[in-house]
Amino acid sequence: MKKILMFLCAIVFVFGVVGNANAIPIIGTPTAPGETTQVGTVDPTSGEIEFFIPLVGSDGIYGVDDGGTYGTSADTTTAPINGPTMHMYLLFPVPAGYIGHTLTLTFTDLDLKPYNDPDRFFERLILNGEGGLPSGPFESYEDPSLSPYVGSADRDGSILTFTGLTIGPGDSWIHLGFEAYSDGLGKGPWTNIAEYLTAELDTTFPVPEPATMLLLGSGLIGLAAFRRKFSK
Residue 86 sits in which domain range? Predict the structure, then answer.
């Protein structure tokens, strides 16, 4: 009986350690939709993506349209800004057996309300439901953020964190959309400046939870005790 209890405790301990040790972060990289070849400028050390939200022109995909230059260089305009949508597809190659559950988007100088600078110049972030996110689109450019997203989505300045997701295993894409617009800024010239994004997906290797293992262990111990009593 004592040996059985010690054996079950060891199993619970091992499963708990393995579950924690196998968590890995995956940095998203921009690609064409459904493709795995990286496009645009990405810092090889930090995974930080440099991009420019277009002020003029037509909708396009970051680093794919216009000969691979769309969203990778600055625009200048003298008219009020009501820019096109720049689509960006981030690839997260989730290894077999792993599941992504927390997505953190960290921006530098994204002018979402009420964090806009200069005054009355805004940028909008649109997230579409792909790769585990809710079917969209849903967007964040006001506080409180992210409606009608159902789940947990926290915002701290230019950091957006989504939890409770199910992304992967396998290649999964998150679809972002960016727009720039002005509210009575008058005549320019206005020039967009570089934005920076780091997208990190936390993953886990699913294993039986300690509570589940304890419940199983309790049942086995009870069964062993009953058998011992019955044999007497």
Answer: 29-205
Q: Does residue 13 fall inside a structural domain?
A: no
pLDDT > 60? residue 169: yes
Closest CA to 71 of 59, 63, 83, 80: 63
Count of domains observed in the chain: 1
User: Smallest Cα–Cα separation from 5: which of 218, 189, 175?
Assistant: 218
Contact 174, 89 (CB under 8 A): yes
State residue 221's pLDDT score: 57
Residue 80 within a domain: yes
Angle, vertex CA 119, rays to CA 113 and CA 124, nearest 5: 35
Query: Taking a C-beta distance cutoff of 8 angstroms, is the pair 91, 173 a contact?
Result: yes
Inside any domain, residue 1: no
DSSP one-letter string for 137-151: -EEESSSS--BS--S
Longest CA pairwise span in the chain (Å): 95
Q: Which of 18-32, 78-92, 170-184, 218-232 is least confident? A: 218-232
